Automatic annotation (TrEMBL):
Source organism (scientific name): Penicillium frequentans
Keywords: ATP-binding, Helicase, Hydrolase, Nucleotide-binding
Entries under PROSITE patterns matching the protein: DEAH_ATP_HELICASE, HELICASE_ATP_BIND_1, HELICASE_CTER
GO molecular function annotations of the record: ATP binding; double-stranded RNA binding; hydrolase activity; RNA helicase activity
CDD domains the record matches: DEXHc_RHA-like, SF2_C_RHA
GO CC term, one of those recorded: ribonucleoprotein complex
Enzyme Commission number: 3.6.4.13
Name recorded for this polypeptide: RNA helicase
Top enzyme class: hydrolase
GO biological process, one term: positive regulation of transcription by RNA polymerase I
Residue span, Helicase ATP-binding domain: 48-240
InterPro entries in the cross-refs: DEAD-box_helicase_OB_fold, DNA/RNA_helicase_DEAH_CS, Helicase-assoc_dom, Helicase_ATP-bd, Helicase_C-like, P-loop_NTPase
Organism classification: Eukaryota, Fungi, Dikarya, Ascomycota, Pezizomycotina
Region (Disordered): 239-260
Pfam families: HA2_C (PF21010), Helicase_C (PF00271), OB_NTP_bind (PF07717)
Length: 721
């Protein structure tokens, strides 16, 4: 986070001695030569002119055409982008003189992209990044990590963070423009963002003292027609909001001048031909198949030319990383070396940045990525793509009333994007680890997330923003009524809403935390139990935000080794307390963390992320006055597990199952069979009842993140709902 300068000791840019501005400028002028070659560069004047006249622009351009990095730089020196003094009416009827605008926000669906884009744009603009210098003009803000300075003009942030900022500042007063990037991904948060922004641009501007807000919506593939209609509808329906439904034909909309307020811009990309090679027969083990293809490429195809492999998640990435490294050892020494680089959301930042560095001489980069690399992140040098054809997606399981992560076939449009990554700089090849007839059966496009996931967070955000009538909210795609009702019930269950469906005090507090509503509820419950319990729960939640802190040990032999190595960490209460003892041991004083992690078969990489999250959560809790401003409280080792588990039950009362006489577990709500996942320390154990964080469905239903609880606690927690 940005260091808070002392009020009367404001650092001045010129006294910033740490940063070598000359070398930054030199680097920027080298990069300028590269930037000039981007397809978008020739459109700079057109884009500036259009945005001077109109407030909304829809911009379509292929991945890599330069949208995310160049648009903010095209706009930042425009006259309308300057901070403007304005008189802003306040709720109490008074008028406040304040500065409006001056900053550009660019939203991203993924944190990895937000950070790496900010880093790149800072380099291109010749300015230090974020909080590293008070003179920095480019910053970023993602969950658990914000890096900005008092001079930030361009800020990359996740959609979720922009929604958070809107809770504090509904009119987005500090911004002159909001650039919504990657709308084609259609995550829930982008749908909410566009809904709120439509209201902001088409409505009156009293909250901004009359200063306009420009909105640029960018997409690699999206169907711009529907977005155009969506924003036109906003301009058209505005005057009619008081008297009921918006109506009127498309012709009438044009007459009302809405088309004058929205411009559309198409950027033609550059794409070299990419040859597609399908698997001749269906592939059962795509990790193994990918391994073979990687070495086939490495032995047969000339360098330079890096390989980008699309996998499903951290686990498959790490499994393949290990295999490629093992096989590379026995490789013909006359061949170039292989540098394996994983890329997934939970990877610590330093490791993520390595992906963008050019390969050392005589080395081929092999990047193992999740669908992050599909459109969000562009890595140069890639000539070969290996596509497993699958991705992990969130899917709401109505019967269970919760989200689970499922590995599903990707859409045709995603497959085309993946393939395109091979042809950005030269002709390339794309190896699809599925057959051509499988490809033909894929869906055309991704289903918007709002149609398939838990909506409680989205709903809480809307309620906290004062949207009471959810049905009238301008959704890009309207979610099913059933899913909205489920989310309402869930929020009522954790006391985030009051009986009339309005936001409660608890709900407001939860909405301001960077957590899902359930985890937010757990944190609040823990804070009521006292500081020690809260610190412990923060440690556990930090672990839950990382995919897996323990190294994968699925084979029998490895399982035994893990049992021994981790014996002193395992807790019979279950995974939550085991996570806690792991964090405590890892974070202990005088511990060589890397060596400790290796000895205990714990992922040092994952634990570094855990420590980052823990630091951020503690600081958020201090800001929210849930924690005192004193870190010495950290030294305690004797908390009882009961308040910790009971705090978790406040959020997860419906994620519980009890043991039934046949020895299996049945969910308390819904009476479904569920088994404890083999990765849990409680695997194979019989306890009265279990509580779990996550429900995964592979060949059967598994509970992950499991702890033993007592049925009467569950009863109490459910009764409290
Ligand atoms: P788009 O948004 O249209 O997909 P970008 O603006 O993200 O395009 O990328 C434009 C170019 O900038 C890419 O071709 C890539 O070479 C370069 N680039 C983007 N991000 C980074 C980064 N983090 N490191 C190095 N180069 C980058």
């Amino acid at each position: 986070t940005a260091p808070k300068g002392k009020p009367n000791n404001k650092p001045k840019p010129l006294t910033d001695t740490k940063t070598n501005f000359t070398s930054l400028r030199e680097k920027a002028s080298i990069l300028y030569e590269q930037r000039k070659k981007l397809p978008i560069f020739g459109h700079a004047d057109e884009i500036r002119t259009k945005l001077r006249e109109q407030d909304v622009m829809l911009l379509v351009g292929e991945t890599g055409s330069g949208k995310s990095t160049q648009i903010p730089q095209f706009l930042v020196n425009e006259f309308w982008c300057r901070p403007t003094p304005a008189k802003v009416p306040q709720k109490d009827g008074s008028v406040k003189s304040m500065t409006v605008g001056g900053c550009i926000a660019i939203t991203q669906p993924r944190r990895v992209a937000a950070i790496s884009l900010a880093r790149r744009v800072a380099e291109e603009m010749g300015t230090p990044l974020g909080s590293s210098s008070p003179a920095s003009k480019v910053g970023y803000s993602v969950r658990f990590d914000t890096s900005t300075s008092p001079s930030t003009r361009v800020k990359f942030l996740t959609e979720g963070m922009l929604l958070q900022e809107m809770l504090h500042d509904p009119w987005l007063t500090r911004y002159s423009a909001i650039v919504v990037d990657e709308v084609h991904e259609r995550g829930v948060n982008v749908d909410l963002t566009t809904g709120f922004l439509r209201n902001l641009v088409s409505g009156k501007r009293e909250g901004r003292g009359g200063v306009p807000l420009k909105v640029v919506v960018m997409s690699a593939t999206a169907d711009m027609e529907s977005l155009l209609g969506f924003f036109q509808e906003g301009f058209k329906s505005q005057p009619q909001l008081q008297n009921g439904e918006a109506n009127g034909t498309a012709e009438e909309q044009k007459d009302e001048g809405s088309s004058k307020q929205i411009s559309v811009c198409h950027i033609k990309g550059r794409q070299f031909p990419v040859q597609t090679i399908y698997s001749p027969e269906p592939v059962h083990d795509y990790v193994d198949a990918a391994l073979k293809v990687i070495f086939q490429i490495h032995y047969k195809e000339p360098t330079p030319g890096d390989v980008l492999v699309f996998l499903t998640g951290q686990e498959t990435v790490e499994a393949l990383e290990k295999l490629v490294n093992e096989y590379a050892v026995g490789m013909d020494p006359s061949l170039p070396r292989i540098q394996v680089l994983p890329l997934f959301a939970a990877l610590p930042q330093v490791a993520q940045q390595r992906v963008f560095a050019p390969a050392p001489p005589r080395t081929r980069k092999v990047i193992l990525a999740t669908n992050i690399a599909e459109t969000s992140v562009t890595v140069s040098g890639v000539r070969y793509v290996v596509d497993c054809g699958k991705a992990k997606v969130k899917q709401f399981r109505t019967r269970l009333g919760l989200d689970s992560l499922l590995v599903k076939p990707i859409s045709k449009s995603a497959a085309i994007q993946r393939k395109g990554r091979a042809g950005r700089e030269a002709p390339g090849k794309c190896y699809r680890l599925y057959t051509e007839s499988d490809y033909l059966t894929l869906d055309e496009t991704n289903t918007p997330e709002i149609l398939r996931c838990d909506l409680s967070q989205a709903l809480l955000n809307m309620k906290a923003r004062g949207v009471d009538d959810i049905v009238r909210f301008p959704f890009l795609t309207r979610p099913p009524r059933e899913a909205l009702e489920k989310a309402l019930l869930q929020l009522l269950g954790i006391d985030a809403l009051d009986e009339s469906g309005g936001i409660s005090e608890v709900g407001l507090k939860i909405a301001k935390l960077p957590l899902t509503p359930t985890l937010g509820r757990v944190l609040l419950a823990a804070s009521e139990q006292g500081t020690e319990c809260l610190l412990d729960v923060i440690d556990i939640i930090s672990c839950l935000s990382v995919e897996n802190i323990f190294l994968n040990t699925t084979s029998e032999e490895k399982k035994e080794a893990a049992e021994i190595a981790r014996r002193d960490l395992y807790r019979r209460e279950g995974d939550h307390l085991t996570m806690l003892s792991t964090v405590r041991a890892y974070a202990g004083e005088n511990v060589d963390r890397k060596a400790w992690a290796e000895r205990h078969l714990v992922s040092h990489r994952a634990m570094q992320s855990v420590m980052d999250v823990r630091k951020q959560l503690r600081s958020q809790c201090r800001q929210a006055k849930l924690l005192p401003r004193d870190d010495r409280l950290d030294q305690h080792f004797d908390t009882s597990p009961v308040p910790i588990l009971q705090s978790f039950l406040c959020g997860f009362a419906t994620n519980t199952a009890r043991l039934v006489p046949d020895g299996s577990y049945r969910t308390v709500v819904g009476n479904q069979t569920v088994a404890i996942h083999p990765s849990s320390v409680l695997f194979g154990k019989k306890v009265e009842a279990i509580m779990y964080n996550e429900f995964v469905f592979t060949n059967r239903s598994y509970a992950r993140g499991v702890s033993a609880v007592q049925m009467d606690w569950v009863g109490e927690a459910l009764a409290g709902q």
